[in-house]
């Protein structure tokens, strides 16, 4: 997987704008090659601000939004429509404003549809497998997953990514693409997350991080820490790993 590249921005607003313009460019480039593009979205303040910035961008309509698949890296196991669901926030910020194809919006199942987060995780894994089978790509990164052209992540102050928290079962999970989480230290404890191996199957992984409280996590991740202790350290794309950070998050980078 690709060594991390780092791009430092003056502050969170410009960071979100930069993520938005890169995302638009990436989707247009992929669509020019293949028609359909696939993005994995993140929750969190930067991820959501980036989606708002996509909507506000003068080049927003250069993307054919009806030909984009949307998946999510993780979700809180809550009822459909709950304001703390990443999918609800993404819909408000961008998706509901665009002519997206509802059949290409792949939300995690909710707590009113599934008895528990494990059942919702199994359902998401099955839908990912179905999408992978439909693509039937030669040389697919992982036969259980569709091709993820870009996968976006936020990073917590404890260096968690998606709902994979340091030292817990989720980050240690091997052999499955999606995991049900019962013990997230941030509420709610019940969540659903892609596993690290799924994240690493993406062509490009982008980590968008702002603020001084993230500086320690960014420093450790980019100093080559282990991914069980520092999950963000393990987040790498096959072709590109891009850390998009602001100056405050950069103060503990190795060599600064
Ligand atoms: C959660 C949080 C968390 C968030 C990161 C990055 O899981 O409860 O939403 O995962 O995405 O902490 O958040 P920011 O983009 O706000 O820094």
UniProtKB/TrEMBL annotation:
Catalytic activity: 6-phospho-D-glucono-1,5-lactone + H2O = 6-phospho-D-gluconate + H(+)
GO biological process: carbohydrate metabolic process; pentose-phosphate shunt
Pathway assigned to this chain's UniProt record: Carbohydrate degradation; pentose phosphate pathway; D-ribulose 5-phosphate from D-glucose 6-phosphate (oxidative stage): step 2/3
GO molecular function, one term: 6-phosphogluconolactonase activity
Keywords associated with the record: Hydrolase
Enzyme Commission code: 3.1.1.31
InterPro entries xref list: 6-phosphogluconolactonase_DevB, 6PGL, Glc/Gal-6P_isomerase, NagB/RpiA_transferase-like
Location of the Glucosamine/galactosamine-6-phosphate isomerase domain: 13-243
CDD domains assigned to the protein according to its UniProt record, in alphabetical order: 6PGL
Keyword check for Hydrolase: yes
Function, in words: Hydrolysis of 6-phosphogluconolactone to 6-phosphogluconate.
Similarity-based family: Belongs to the glucosamine/galactosamine-6-phosphate isomerase family. 6-phosphogluconolactonase subfamily.
Protein name: 6-phosphogluconolactonase
Source lineage: Bacteria, Bacillati, Actinomycetota, Actinomycetes, Micrococcales
Gene for this chain: pgl
